[in-house]
Amino acid sequence: MTDSGGGTGVPVRRSRLAEYAEMTGQPPKTSRQSEVSRSATASERPGLVETDRGAEPSDAEVAARRREFTMLLEVFRDTAVLVPLRSGGWLTADFGGVRWILAFSDESALARYALARDEAHQEWTYQTVLGARLLDVAVPEAKVPCGVALDVADGAEHAVLFPPVSGVVPDAFAVDHIHRGGAPR
After folding, report:
1. Average pLDDT, 10 consecutive residues per value, the chain (185 residues)
2. CB–CB of 157/33 below 8 Å?
3. Which of 15, 36, 42, 161 reaches 20 to 30 Å from 181, CA-CA?
4. The pTM is what?
5. Number of CB atoms found within 10 A of residue 9's CB
6. Structural domain count, the chain
7. 126 part of a folded domain
8. Where is the composition biased (Basic and acidic residues) (predicted)?
9. Phi/psi at 37 (nearest 5 deg)?
């Protein structure tokens, strides 16, 4: 989209994210991102029983959560996500000794992130990348413990972290993988 540039007659490129930011609020309950990043409340998920925050989950609940995460991981691997570009590379954040590649399920999710950072007015360039490529190619190229954070502006109930652990990233780059020396990486 272009803007007249304040009456100068010279078209000025306006970020499409600015338009999304103007329309966005909380993440929608139903969207393409529900396939990847939205998890229902415990009462809506079959087989899960809500527990007290301090209580130990039952074996059945742990198994159900693992199945749910495995399904989310499979969908993520097969889904194209948006990865913003910054300083010649993908947008990342370092937290807790892990580098996180920031990915977004759609332009609305990216707009919410830009809005949360007070950067919705800026032009955001991004690449569309298959989730499997992020986990199988980008994580090893990071040369540090690295995972993928999906829709980070959408809060703990909606964002999904794909940490650098066995079963998520290649074993050679998983922090919980036992190496030849017998110690975890």
Report:
1. 42 47 48 44 40 74 92 97 94 94 96 94 94 96 95 92 95 77 47
2. no
3. 161
4. 0.69
5. 7
6. 1
7. yes
8. 50-61
9. -115, -10
